[in-house]
Specification:
mainly alpha, 3-stranded mixed beta sheet, 3 strands, about 5% strand, globular
């Protein structure tokens, strides 16, 4: 996988988000390196089987956090409820061009930052100070520049230092979500350090992404409610809906694809790019429908798989739980805030399973995940 990352690096830095936005360009660039992807993926599958054994691919991924049967329940719920996309798709398709134009509309970083600050302030007044302090202390690298990574992220150099936030702000409304998401990670890190020893001031990917996705959903919804322009309100609502569906169903399509690839590799000791493309497109069509699947690059999975096999599993679980959080906030904002603020303080001494159990969630019951899925729409 390291070879693939290095070879793709120059092209990714050159074209950046255009690889995601322009299907033809993405296919052209990624297809060029597909032979490297094939070798990297086969090597990664070989290592997974050696490390985890042939019967339980999720041994190292889920055992410490959840019983693997959780994933079987989630897969069943998603597969049985894919029809939930139909109503959304009709709304989305009729407004698709308007939505894309809206997301390309220009905003300054100051304008976007003020919206984000207002959103965090809406949840808890102390949070806005953290955002302002991070900006004033120079802890945010805002704009695109040479040799900067494609992916926005947080960097924690030391357990004793504040997190540094990397953004790729291009002056578009679509950049707003990444600002919210990365500030959520940084804020969460700060709170963990305040309530835990420096060596225990972290959490696993499932908890981290649940926090970031919740704030992403919450602040975008908060902004939508405050916009005066009726058309903008409707488009932002549609964008939020699309974001929530894509986090869930796209990651599910990747997961189902990788599971099939794993089984094929066990039998044949080799998988090919052509084979993976076929399986990926099949799963996209099953989960997203023919037309929505057509919008995703044939080689889009390569960008995601290049990060490592099964890395997106926490996003799938987190996307569902973040929707439960948002639904609870709508019903009882003060009660949920109290529970959520405590949730933010829990360090790595507790597993995800124990944390969610203490919050009153029966994560081994199908109805919990069904409720999470249906709260999206």
């Amino acid at each position: 996988m390291e070879i693939l990352r290095n070879e793709l690096s120059d092209e990714i830095k050159k074209y950046r988000e255009k690889l995601f936005e322009d299907k033809k360009l993405g296919n052209k660039i990624l297809k060029k390196y597909s032979h490297l992807a094939e070798e990297a993926i086969n090597e990664n599958l070989k290592l997974l089987i050696q490390k985890e054994g042939p019967n339980n691919i999720y041994k190292n991924l889920l055992t410490k956090e959840f019983d693997p049967r959780i994933l079987k329940i989630i897969k069943k719920v998603i597969s049985e409820n894919k029809e939930i996309l139909k109503e959304f798709f009709n709304d989305y398709q009729s407004q698709k061009d308007n939505l894309e134009a809206f997301l390309r509309s220009k905003i300054s970083f100051k304008e976007g930052a003020l919206w984000v600050i207002d959103g965090y302030n809406q949840f808890d007044k102390s949070f806005k100070n953290f955002i302002r302090d991070s900006l004033e202390l120079g802890l945010v690298d805002v704009y695109l520049k040479k040799n900067k990574s494609l992916t926005p992220r947080n960097i924690t150099v030391s357990a004793f230092l504040p997190p540094f936030i990397l953004l790729n702000f291009e002056g578009k409304f679509s950049n707003l979500a990444q600002i919210i998401h990365e500030f959520a990670h940084a804020l969460h890190t700060k709170i963990l350090k305040n309530y835990n020893s420096p060596l225990n001031a972290h959490q696993n990917a499932i908890i981290r992404e649940t926090v970031a996705l919740f704030f992403e959903y919450f602040i975008l919804q908060n902004l939508e409610e405050k916009l005066n322009n009726k058309n903008q309100k409707e488009l932002l609502k549609l964008y939020l809906q699309r974001t929530r569906f894509y986090y869930l169903f796209y990651n599910a399509a990747l997961l189902f694809t990788e599971e099939e690839i794993y089984q094929i590799y066990k039998k044949r000791k080799r998988v090919t790019i052509k084979m993976i493309n076929k399986i990926f497109k099949k799963n996209l069509k099953i989960l997203l429908g023919e037309k929505m699947a057509q919008e995703i690059s044939d080689y889009r999975w390569l960008l995601d798989v290049s990060k490592g096999m099964f890395w997106h599993l926490p996003y799938l679980i987190s996307a569902l739980i973040a929707n439960i959080f948002l639904n609870e906030y709508r019903k009882n904002s003060q009660g949920f805030k109290k529970k959520f603020l405590k949730f933010l303080t829990v360090g790595a001494s507790k597993s995800s399973e124990k944390i969610f159990k203490e919050m009153g969630y029966d994560i081994y019951h199908k109805n919990f995940w069904m409720k999470a899925l249906k709260s999206i729409y």
